[in-house]
Amino acid sequence: MFSSTLRTSARMASRASVRAFTTARAAPSTKVYTSLAAAGVVSFAAYQAAQYPVRLEGAKTIAGEKGTASERSFVMIKPDGVSRQLVGKIISRFEERGYKLVAIKSLTPSPALAKEHYIDLASRPFYAGLVKYITSGTPVVAMVWEGKDIIRQGRRIVGATNPLESDPGSVRGQYAVSVGRNLIHASDGFDSATKEIGLWFDEAELSEYEPIAWPWVMADN
Ligand code: DAT
Ligand code: MG
């Protein structure tokens, strides 16, 4: 799974190489990808391509097109949400709002995947505990949701990082009280959605279809 994801990102990178491009973030720490490459998880070049997916200005990425109805977000129900059997209730929020489920799978992530997913937090004191919790053996439910403003609205549905600060109508505000067990993840921007969807899913796992209610949900008149 990890390697097919890397292939996708590498494809995106090579497609872009004939044109001017921007990268999502500044140069990464060599320490991190050197250790993953050394561990045999990935080749240096493939890992770099995966960590920093190349994005053409205004072009579509694996996260769709920013600001359009094709925009996509990576949403993950964490092990506490699965263990507390809140999966159906959480999914319903996205479905009922009018978002399209593009991909879904249940898995226990490898430490390499969990570490990479949260790599931006690597220097924080809670990082090791966060990775341990995500890889505990109780699965996560990884999803891709699509629709108008899904990245921003997904964050609103999820609620503030600390559930004690979350709006009571949000998932975290309704079901959680601890920042360390806040049930759910959602991409916080287009670049992170591009990175995260590419990290967790192969392009072939993402469905293209139109839900029957789509015109009723999407019309602006
Ligand atoms: P979010 O999940 O809202 O995007 P984040 O990206 O800042 O928040 O952090 C990722 C996760 O790390 C978060 O969902 C829970 C955990 N976390 C964040 N801050 C924490 C803290 N101060 N103590 C313990 N865990 C924390
Ligand atoms: Mg985050």
TrEMBL record:
EC number: 2.7.4.6
Record-linked Gene3D superfamilies: Nucleoside diphosphate kinase-like domain (3.30.70.141)
Alphabetized UniProt keyword annotations: Kinase, Transferase
Source species, domain of life: Eukaryota
Alphabetical GO biological process terms: CTP biosynthetic process; GTP biosynthetic process; UTP biosynthetic process
Entry cofactors: Mg(2+)
Chain sites annotated for binding ATP: K78, F126, R155, T161, R172, N182
KW DNA damage (keyword) present: no
SMART domains listed in its UniProt record: NDK
A Pfam family reported for this protein in Swiss-Prot or TrEMBL: NDK
Annotated CDD domains: NDPk_I
Transferase among keywords: yes
Family: Belongs to the NDK family.
PANTHER family membership: NUCLEOSIDE DIPHOSPHATE KINASE
Protein name, as recorded: Nucleoside diphosphate kinase
Originating organism: Papiliotrema laurentii
